[in-house]
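Incident review: delayed structure delivery

Summary: a single-chain prediction request sat in the queue longer than the usual turnaround. Root cause was a stuck worker, restarted by the on-call engineer. No data loss occurred. The affected request and its eventual output are reproduced below so the record is complete for anyone auditing the incident later.

Affected input:
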Amino acid sequence: MRKYIPILLVLVVLMSGCIRETEYWFYTKVAAKTEYLPVCNRIQNQDGKYECYRIVAEIKKEPAICDEIPKQKIRDDCYRWIVQDTKNPNLCEKITDQEITIECYKVTKANLTRCEEIQDQEKKDLCYYAIRLCDKIQEQQYWRDQCYLEINYAKKDPEICEKIKSQETRDDCYEVITYTKKDPALCDKIKSQETRDDCYEVITYTKKDSTICDRIHAQKIRDWCYRRIAKDTKNQTICEKIQSQSHKDNCYTEVAKAVGNHTICDKIQDQQDKYYCYKDVADVKKDLVICNKIPDQEIEDLCYREVAIAKQDYRICGKIQEQNIKDECYGKNVESIKNISICEEIQSQYYKDKCYRNVATAKKDPTICDGIQDKYHKNRCYDETT
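Output delivered after worker restart:
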């Protein structure tokens, strides 16, 4: 009777309303601390009651308590946690969930002798899976296929893939091997068109061979494949294989930028895309002359802006017609501006403030800070010049 006195005292306190914890947590803590299972029966919620059973069983390492839990998931978890501590292999056969059963055989370090002793064929198959004896699995087809697949992550042997019955899993097996072997012939063995296309595409990331892209069935993926290899190999002729005109135009732009040759842009059909291509190449080469080829005023202005930023030369900004683009051009080149008169040409107050601050800092002249409207930048300007 003495050992139950602490339990009774705690329960009296609870009934008096002094304890504000939830019913589940309170009774579970009491049961766990005292290892007295009947306390769990005070929990009204059935799942909560059996979770309490599980916790007491784990603490006491008594699988017999798990046997009393009617809820399969909680019961399986109960056996699982006891196995983690006790390494008792006999509990594995009590578990219903297949994945937890496999985990149990692994934790208890099952071997061939242990698996052969198991009477239930399902459990025996799961035991063989746990120790990767795939050929011995008789009835559990899914786990036999998974066993071969997982073994092949390390072995990379196409003959192992051929043992797999499930077409989807066999396709996955071939695809896994190609990541290492980079052999498109292995992709040919894949039945699923989508998986086969993915397989070919993965190989091209390493091989950079556009003829592998030829094997891809889906046009969109095939076009992306050509476009990526054309850019990586700086080969504009690969762009000609692309069916989608927008992808083809983008391909020419990417190659033109990669090699720094604006004449490749002339192959682009869409006029706007062609002009943007000129702009991008001009930016890469820092070449103003290329901007002069652009008849579209806005894109030409953007071209000047990009070259000015690339060269950090604010004088180029003066060529820009559109005021917003010109302001941004000056704003991105403030570090090269040392003349306050340039700041006065900027209409955007934000960029004008940045310009004044930069010139003031460069000249160490706090009087220039007076022209700044933003209080934060003005105060920082004074700090930097005094």
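Verification: Residues 339-386 form one domain.
Action items: add queue-age alerting; document worker restart procedure.
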